[in-house]
Amino acid sequence: RSGEADSISGINIIDDHTIAITTEDVYGAFFYQIGEQVSIVPEHIWGDVPAAEAHERTDLLHNPVGTGPFKFTEYEPDQYVILDKFADYWNGEPKIDQMVFKPMNAEIGPSAVVSGEADMHQTSSMNPETINMLTEAGCEIQELWWTSIRYLILNNDHPLFQTKEARQAMAYAIDRYGIAENIFYGYGRVENTCYAADQWGTPPADQINPYEYNPEKAKELLVAAGCEYQGDTLYLNGEPVTLDFIHPTGNANVEKIAVVIQQNLKDIGIDVSVTPMEMASHNALCASGDFDMAMIGNGSVDPDMTWIYASDGSSNYENFSDPHVDELLKEGLKYVDQEKREPIYQELAIYLNDVMPMVPIVSWCDGLIIAPGLEGVKAEEEAAYMFANLENWYFSNLAE
After folding, report:
1. Where is the Solute-binding protein family domain (predicted)?
2. From residue 15, how far is each of 5, 23, 45, 65, 70 by CA, in Å?
């Protein structure tokens, strides 16, 4: 960790392309964490840089060296990044000579592909008008479904959210199916567990509660949880229920979801004040526990959710603690084989679907707009690794 060690216990070099790692205990999420969260850096560049000083070396950070089919050539902050092909790439010479990445306003990105200014653009707005325009222009649109889920975080320390009935009421009260259809134009998917529907670990649909939009059911559950109605207003312990709802700025869909949630909860007698804030401030407030409700996106390729749902989880912003959940999370990490782990995580998902520590709202897909003639892109097969086969992309409409 200090950057001074010449070797690390448990890591052995087998050959130029293989290392063996020995751990003290079986850790089920190990392969995911090594593959997704650990980077190998070139010794000939970083070998003499103390680890504590690495973040200060902008001269090196702005000239990255990787192992992919393209190599870094030029970078102009806020304008572009240029990559040139690496002819000696291990999996074959790339068919495209150069890639240029430019930041572009989301409103003009699709039109830029149609006009020929761009060959590809990723959009989070899959509105019908834009899709029709792109289709008529001969563009291909690949759907990038993410494993992340947009959640409404309920602070379980708040007096209202200390029973599962009250938390279930929130799931019934929010028109999540309307959000998926109207805000995401049908390219959102209502989620009812801690996992996206096509992620391994997700239980069969008939084993979970779909929490169809039902304001009257929500009211019944709130009364069962100890609340009462005076007229149309919900009261708890003799006081009208009011909630502060924070959410991060910078995402139009999040802002629209917040408006829907505010109105839906008003419909069941709860007054909600909404406060948008910059992401870092939002997350800091969540970590402090000084909030009523918040919104966050969470997800992982591996189904281990220790960081979110364990009593001591680093991102347990909902302040949820349940011995059964803690035990299932520990059990799921005792095995490496997916066949042994999956039933454990399915049980976890079914249990969380019932106790509802926070409300899963929706997962979503982005659209990858591909210009006519650009071939070989297979991003929708693995949204998390959309550039996985970059060396095989090519233009079929270029003159020989």
Report:
1. 6-315
2. 20, 20, 21, 22, 25
Q: Tell me the two tokens of residue 53.
A: 């000083």
Is 368:113 a contact under the CB 8 Å cutoff?
no
Of the CA atoms within 13 Å of residue 240, those in its CB half-sphere come to: 11
Give tens-digit pLDDT for 29-59.
888 878 777 777 888 999 999 989 999 999 9
**What is the value of pTM for the model shown?**
0.86
Q: Are 381 and 146 in contact (CB under 8 A)?
A: no
Q: Where are the beta strands (DSSP E) in 111-164?
A: 120-123, 140-145, 149-154
Instruction: Name the region of 238 (left: φ>0; alpha: ψ -120 to 50; beta: rest).
Output: left
List the domain boundaries for the chain. 11-60, 149-364
Taking alpha carbons only, the member of 252, 10, 15 closest to residue 124 is: 252
The SS3 call for residue 234 is: strand
Q: Which pair of structure tokens corresponds to residue 198? A: 């096509």
pLDDT at 144 over 80: yes
List all residues 6 or more positions away from 22 whose beta carbon is below 8 Å from its beta carbon.
10, 11, 12
Residue showing tokens 């969470």: 298
Residue-level pLDDT at 400: 52
The C-alpha atoms of residue 68 and residue 85 are separated, in whole angstroms, by: 9
Within 10 angstroms of residue 364's Cβ, the number of other Cβ atoms is 25
Residues contacting residue 70 through CB under 8 Å, at least 6 positions apart: 83, 84, 85, 86, 94, 99, 390
Distance between CA atoms of 103 and 269, rounded to whole angstroms? 43
